[in-house]
Amino acid sequence: MKIKEGSRVCCLGDSITDMGFWIYDINGYLADIGSKTRFYNCGIGGNMSSDAPYYLEDEVLKLDPDYVIVMFGANDVGQYLYQKKPAGEEIPEDERKDDIAKRRKSYEVNMKIICQMLIQRDVNVILMTPLAFDDCDRSNTADVMHGASDELEYYGEIVKNIAKENGADVLELHKNFKAAGDCLEKDGIRLYEDDRVHPSRNGFKIMASIVLKHLEYDVDIPTSRAELDKLPFVNTEKNDARFETEKKVREMSFIEHGRYKYENRKRYYSSWEEIAQDLTRCCFEGDLAAWESLDRYKERAKRYILNRPRRGEILRLLIKQTEEL
Question: Beta strand pairing status for 67-71 and 38-43?
Answer without folding.
Answer: unpaired
